Amino acid sequence: MMKLSKYVLYDILRSKIIIAYTLFLFVVSISMFQMEENSSKAMLSLLNIVLIVLPLVSLVFTTIHYYNSYEFIELMSSQPMSRTRILLSEFAGVSISLLIGVGIPVLLFSADATGFALVFTGMCLTLVFASIAFLASVIARDKARGIGFSLLLWFYFALIYDGLVLLILFSFSDYPLEKLTLLLSALNPIDLGRIFIMLKMDVSALMGYTGALYKDFFGSGTGILFTTGIMMLWMVLPLWMAVRKFKKKDL
Amino acid sequence: MIRIEHINKRFRKLQVLDNVSASFTKGQVVSLIGPNGSGKTTLIKSILGMVRPDSGKIYVEEQLVNSDHTYREKIGYMPQIGRYPDNMKIGQLFKMLQNIRNTPVEKLDKTLIEKFELEKIFEKPMRTLSGGTRQKVSAALAFLFDPAILILDEPTAGLDPLSSEILKEKILVEKKKNKLILITSHILADLDELTTHIMYMQEGKMQFFKDMEALQEETGELRLGKAIARIMKGEQFNNEWIDKMLEIKNDEKIY
Predict the structure, then answer these.
(1) What is the pTM of this model?
(2) Where are the beta strands (DSSP E) in B85-203?
(3) Partner-chain residue, chosen from A68, A77, A79, that has the shortest CB–CB distance to B97
(4) Which residue among A20, A45, B164, B203 is least enclosed by CB atoms within 10 Å?
(5) Do A4 and B48 touch (CB under 8 A)?
(6) Does domain B2-254 have CATH number 3.40.50.300?
(7) Domain spans in chain B, listed from the N-terminal domain onward
(8) Is the ipTM of this complex over 0.85?
């Protein structure tokens, strides 16, 4: 499997987009840490970048890469190689390249539990959205539709979903909704990541009563297991569906 | 070696393959001909497992296509348009495929790489190559692993006359090694000296599958283009396409 990923990775690194992306993340993190005296404040600003920018870049880059290497995928599928292996190698190549840039400066400046949590969330989100992008691009026939579909998904997860949750909380505010909000947050990887880091930063008091409940649940051992498990599910499930769809697809 | 049993394929409203059955054996050079959009490439892609037929079965050396991918080790495929990763160098492309196929170096057939002088440009990235050079790379790749079955989709399109001749010679050499070779082409003159069997397709249906001698006998024509024109006219198929092919040939005679 690594045989093919190696070449995919090499091809991506040569195109320099990933290097620019790494540099961008590097500059942003360093400037954040330089501007803020309190490193946990800088971390909070970085959190927003991690939650908004990483999923977007991951989605768009993966989708574009898939369509650009379509002919290559075709060539590979005429070789003695299973389709599952082709798609998974592509996925491995893309995600390794995207993971390269995430988190080096964060760990340089603040190598504590919060720093690790931030990097971990960033990596998880990158993989989750790369996996979602693969599903979107396998389903959509042409490039424009694929990228459109990916952007729509990003809007949904980063913006629309929160609005919907607020709407639900607002209209049913007379009922006890704590358990429901827990469930709702699991349905969006970005929210899950946000809560995970917020709790590590000890700013959960800002979130009021729900924050206390979160702290109680996510702060515990089962909570961490739950978060990691749901994140894994978010990575594996779309990819698995993409592979299933890809196997039946006409190239 | 390849057995196709009643395959059907439909892309939305268009019936691309309509109950096609055929059987190819060793030593044959089969020319797949027909107008654009008659389903030749789809048929080839079905054999390679790139297109999944709606119904019907294809066997390659008694191995069912789509059940397993190992049968593709026996096939060398040259696509109509070969596109490769932009930043990969030619040398790397060859190396990668050798890696994937796990073929020992002494079993590789490097004649085409040498004759097309590809080694000189091994360090060039794929994105800088012209269409013709890409065709050469595709051809060299198809022959590299000395496969028992060769599938060539429009092999001479885009090649200069010299390279086209080199490729044809190579095909003749492989023909003598008792391999099965499938070619699609619109340049019937190219096929004349190579082919042993003709498969003619139109609108997704196989119109006939005959060997060259039978075709020559039936029509009384020695040239492939004319022989096919005869058949088409006699059986009142849509023969506009074949007329066009002949027009070009008549033009050539002027020079």
Answers:
(1) 0.85
(2) 149-153, 180-184, 197-202
(3) A79
(4) A20
(5) no
(6) yes
(7) 2-254
(8) no
